[in-house]
Design goal:
- By secondary structure, the protein is an alpha/beta fold.
- Helices cover 38% and strands 22% of the residues.
- Helix 3 packs across helix 4, helix 4 packs parallel to helix 6 and helix 10 crosses helix 11.
- The protein is globular.
Length: 499
């Protein structure tokens, strides 16, 4: 049985730890491997290797760094099939979803191939008599990322690509549930010509999270996960004087106005709610139907679509989605469905108890549809993170704006309408970080930026795009004056020019 270790100095090495986590095959429920839960002592060796590599890397000119990122992109593309299968076998999402996971991360690698332009500073010629002022965006040094189980390729690439391209060394602590793809990505970076010691991986649990926060030589932490842990990491980073960007949970609302194209809206929401078994922070688990009859029309359209969804093993090309990541998570989602019914929601389609022939021990859960959900219900306040869609009903657009705006999470939202004025008003007023207009999963493209509001994000700088470049660099501003001849040496004291 394979034991996943750590990645240091360009190769995977065995951890010294005697503690291990189980890596499951979600399709069968069987343990297919182990991952080492490293000790804080092991981090020190990785940090020292990273420091040494980074001191040379920051002086490599941006064109050469960009060429390595171009080659890294090519290596990922060439190994797409291998990576997708590896990801599906540990996470459970379908091969198509796994390819999408990798591709969205790959887009960030493509963006940072433009780092010679994106990392440029600013220059003012003649800020005073004979005085020029210019700024540079310098790397931070050694930085770290902590990533969740649901996107084991995309989110590590969101972090490592801008960190490495801007001249830093990067240490990743991936989820212990599906650690193999991150290790393979680090190998591909070395194959692309990346220097050894720059891209390192340490597997572990809370002990490693705390060690990353406390280590004096780690200058920044990027995190994606639950809001409670995001808050913990952000507070810890502040305590130890580190820069931090910490993305948390979500409860994304899909608003349907009476004039929406219901065929299109239902189809879009179907994929957004149930794709990847609902295990994504930009899923659309809540539909808010506005006006009399809108909910009935939506239910009429989406019910047969849900009933025709195929739940299958991750390698089934015809499957719409696969199993959940672990038995524990499956049990949690099932208990949330129980809670919704207990609190008064109407169960329209029940996905509990699904057994797949030949894979009875897999972590499968059928699609569930709940109606008459209200703001007081536990399942509305909390993130379910599974294949469960909840329907809410309101009378007007004003009430529809209030729901996502007043929720504890403010990650994403979408509105379905043919009315441009209503869409514009919604986008302007809703208190959420990412908005889709007739777009069910409004994840911004790589040259914009990703980030929510409220308990969906802690910190002032978002993920990837130019925000990512800014997060992994700091500004140094130089004010310079050159004398024209020796006679000007000495003379009057220098006075900062004010005009």
């Amino acid at each position: 049985m394979r034991i996943v270790g750590n990645f240091i100095d360009g190769k995977e090495i065995k951890s010294n730890s005697t503690r291990h986590g189980d890596i499951y095959n979600p399709n069968t429920g069987e343990i297919q491997g182990k991952v080492s839960l490293s000790s804080a002592d092991e981090l020190e060796e990785i940090v020292q290797s990273a420091i040494k590599a980074q001191k040379e890397w920051e002086h490599v000119n941006p064109q050469r760094r960009a060429r390595i990122m171009f080659e890294f992109k090519s290596k990922i593309e060439a190994n797409m099939d291998e990576l997708a299968l590896m990801l599906s076998n540990e996470h459970g999402k379908t091969i198509a979803d796994s390819r999408g996971d990798i591709t969205r991360g790959l887009e960030v690698v493509e963006f940072v191939c433009g780092i010679p332009h994106n990392q440029k500073g600013e220059h003012t010629f003649g800020a005073g008599q004979g005085i020029d002022v210019y700024s540079v965006r310098a790397p931070l040094g050694v930085v770290a990322g902590i990533t969740p189980f649901n996107f084991p390729a995309m989110i590590p690439l969101w972090m490592c690509a801008p960190a490495l391209a801007t001249g830093n060394a990067f240490i990743l602590k991936p989820s212990e549930k599906d650690p193999s793809v991150p290790i393979r990505l680090a190998e591909l970076f070395i194959e692309a010509g990346g220097p050894k010691g720059l891209f390192n991986i340490i597997n572990g649990d809370k002990e490693i999270v705390d060690a990353l926060l406390e280590h004096k030589d780690i200058k920044a932490i990027s995190f994606v996960g639950s809001s409670d842990i995001a808050h913990y990491v952000y507070a810890g980073a502040a305590k130890y004087g580190k820069r931090a960007q910490c993305m948390g949970g979500a409860k994304n609302h899909g608003i349907i106005l009476p004039d929406a194209n219901m065929d299109t809206a239902a189809k879009d929401i179907l994929g957004a709610a149930y794709g990847s078994a609902g295990e994504r922070c930009m899923a659309l688990p809540v539909v808010v139907c506005v006006g009399e009859g809108t909910a009935e029309r939506f239910i009429e359209k989406i019910t047969p679509m849900i009933e025709n969804l195929k739940v299958g093993i991750s390698t089934d090309k015809d499957a719409d989605y696969g199993p959940l990541v672990t038995a524990v998570h499956k049990a949690k989602v099932s208990s949330m469905i129980d809670k919704a019914i207990e609190e008064g929601a109407k169960l329209l389609i029940d996905g509990r108890g699904l057994k797949l022939s030949g894979y009875e021990n897999g972590f499968f859960l059928g699609p569930t549809l709940l109606d008459n959900v209200t703001p007081e219900m536990t399942t509305y306040h909390e993130e379910i993170f599974g294949p469960v869609l909840q329907i809410m009903r309101v009378n007007n657009l004003e009430d529809a704006i209030k729901l996502p705006s007043s929720h504890q999470y403010g990650n994403g939202t979408a509105i379905f309408t043919a009315n441009g004025r209503a869409a514009r008003e919604f986008a302007a007023r809703v208190e959420v970080g990412m908005v889709g207009i007739n777009v069910p999963i409004p994840v911004p493209v790589a040259y914009h930026t990703f980030g929510g509001w409220k308990r969906s994000a802690f910190g002032d700088i978002n993920q990837y795009g130019m925000e990512g470049v800014r997060f992994y660099t700091r500004t140094k501003t130089i004010t310079q004056r050159w004398y024209e001849d020796d006679e000007n040496h000495g003379g009057n004291a220098f006075v900062i020019p004010t005009f």
